[in-house]
Write a structure and sequence with these properties.
Blueprint (H helix, E strand, L loop, with lengths): L16 H13 L13 E5 L2 E4 L4 E4 L2 H4 L8 H11 L13 H13 L7 E6 L2 H16 L3 E5 L8 H6 L16 E4 L13 H18 L6 E6 L2 E2 L5 E2 L2 H14 L2 E6 L13 H6 L6 E4 L10 E6 H4 L15 H16 L2 H22 L3 E7 L2 E9 L4 E2 L1 H13 L2 E2 L1 E3 L5 E4 L7 H22 L1
Parallel strand pairs: 3-16, 5-6, 5-7, 7-10, 10-11
Antiparallel strand pairs: 1-2, 2-3, 4-12, 8-9, 11-12, 13-14, 14-15, 14-18, 17-18
Helix pairs in contact: 3-11, 4-11, 7-8, 13-14
Length: 455
Amino acid sequence: MLREELPKIITDKVPGPKAAEILKRRDAAVPKALCGTTYPVVIERGSGAVLEDADGNHFLDFIGGVGVLNIGYSNEEVIEAVKAQSEKYFHTIFNIVTHPGYVELAEKLNRLMPVRGAHPKTYFANSGAECDENAIKVARAFTKRPNIICFSGAFHGRTSLTMALTAKKSYSRGMGPFPAGIYRAEYPNLYRAPKGYSEEEAIAYYIDAFKNILIEATPVSDVAAVLMEPIEGEGGFVPAPIGYVKEIRKICDENGILLIADEVQCGNCRTGRFYASEYWKDAGCAPDIITTAKSLGAGLPISAITADEKIMDAVTPGTVGGTFCGNPLSCAAACKTLEIYERDDYAGKAALIGKKIMQFYKELLATYDVVGDVRGLGAMAGIEFVKDRRTKEPYPEFVRSMIAKAVQKGLLIENAGTYDNVIRFLAPLCITDNQLKAGFGIFEDCIRETLKELR
């Protein structure tokens, strides 16, 4: 079975001849902005954590559709759920015709989402960017305020508003002007805190920087919400320290500001909990609104926005919803996916995988001086490469070389971080122990080969 296979390259190089022909057609038919050369891979089929390309090569996927494939490439139960729904009807626009799958999925998320409040409500959009925009709509409707505070390192999408919220300018170059009312605080990256600071001192430093936003950038009375990823994805897989989140929660409560947790990437069992905000809730600092997408629908497009009814019911009718939001096929996939996550303890799987990946990363940290830091929550882990551990100078060319070498060996890895010097781990949570071991072997081989190449 493909889902049990290990990486295997049978062509002389990647891409093989069939994939190369399709990539040639791609380049002729698709805008250049979507036609990179780093991953010359054309999928034929996928199962579990493995994909087979057009030439029969097998690739182990440590990227997982950038966090979309927590349940794997093609789960049989989800396939059957979507098939069953497709035989009834493909579409209703929920604003006009109610379909039961939407209601069932909302009920499931209302039970699972660790938001503040006794009576959560949920509605759906199509993508991570859409649910973040909708969360801001909800926050503005409830608070009657315009401004949003986001963070350095953040990624929230590629729409006009979410490009303004996203820190990395390579995602928005040449696309302005952007919406007003967006202010950026410094994310609490303990690895890159001022030199010599303890964790406690670093948190105090970042909190002071946040408070200065409310003094120098925007009146606190104009701030509707703080939008924050519990663990930054594109920013380098940096978890927000709980001590910092508790202080932000306090500031929000004192000033009538809502706290939004962006769990587009880190939700749906990835971090060892069903939602990473459970860590916040356990510490007494649960968010007011949670957004999630990616692995919610097992690959079908759907995203969710959840908040207590007193917040949700402040929204003016007609300002939320959309043609495809909460599509019946996507809702069927998401309902079955959540059922499997709970039944088969995917959060537990993520916690176990997380222990293994962090043990491996720590061994690399002890062995190779190009490894500057390792971090993460559950099976969402990052390893940061630097030229010098003392200066922490980023080493993006090292990461680029590793990615190119890995794909030729049948392993898919991807960069992250403000400086593109972090490699992210987002493998499907159904990955096997043998596959993990094989992937780790290729990963370390690529480090060794890159060291020889660049030093």
